[in-house]
Amino acid sequence: MSLHASATDELRAWEPPSDGQASLQRTFLDYLADHDDGVWRASAPAHLTASAVIVDPQRSAMLLVLHGKVRRWLQPGGHCELGDASLGQAALREAAEESGIAGLELAGGILHLDRHPAPCRPAEVEEHFDVRYLLVAPPGSEPSRSAESLDVRWFPWSGLPHGIEPTIVAMLAAGRERLGL
Question: Quick one: residue 123, left, alpha or beta (phi over 0 = left, psi -120 to 50 = alpha)?
Answer without folding.
Answer: left
